[in-house]
Amino acid sequence: MFEDALRFPFAGDDSARSLLIGGVLVLLSPFVLPLLPLFGYYLRVVKAGIDGDETPPVFGEWVELSVDGLKAVVVSFVYFLVPLVFTLIGGIVIGVGAILAQERAVAGVATGIGVVGALFVFASLVTVLLATYVFPAALANMARSGDIADAFALSDVFGVAFSVEYLVAGLLGIAAVVLIGIVNTVLTVFTLGLFLLLAVFVQFYAQAVFFYLFGRGYANARGLQAK
Question: Where does the chain cross the membrane (predicted)?
Answer without folding.
Answer: 20-43, 77-101, 113-136, 157-183, 189-214
